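Batch manifest, entry 17 of 40.
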Amino acid sequence: MIFNKDTAEKTAELLLQINAIKLNPGNPFTWASGWKSPIYCDNRLILSFPAIRNYVRDEFAKNIEKQFGKPDVIAGVATGAIGIGMLVAESLGLPFVYVRPEAKKHGRLNQVEGFLQKGQNVVVVEDLISTGNSSLLAVEALRAAGANIKGMAAIFTYGFDVADQNFKNANIDLLTLSNYQNLLNLAVAKKYITEKEEQTLREWNVSPSTWNV
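Output type: structure tokens
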């Protein structure tokens, strides 16, 4: 679910402007999973544009507090959400931790990096949601460390049914600045794509694991 429609439209436009989201139905990308995709999203680019990263930071900070209440800690999911998560924590005047994909093999063997006390309320910040699996592994690690997860806030979600089910099964509320539906609506309105390309993008979203050109 998006925080609100105005933010969703504005965020989508900004991501398209800086090519954080690229739409290429005629020459699809290949994801690490092997899926063919007419869209590629790299929200790390946001950090290179001060005005846009400040907008994302401020929208996160405002809406996290409104929707989840002010938590004790902000947690970023490594590596894509470390930078923006830290900015959000700074804006809210809160401690920050980040979660590795797996525990380190040496030293203190940490998976959660930073100071986190058992029982603290945590909101997790993520840059992108596809199936939700990697994001929810971070939630599991935080819960194992004793955290109380208030919810997750992400910049963008592809809106896959499998992700919705995964978050429901994990009993985690997910709210995003923007999503696939708002992105396509904006892309058509601003003529980033044609109506024919929009149809291709919508077909992909229904069954991304089996879609082909």
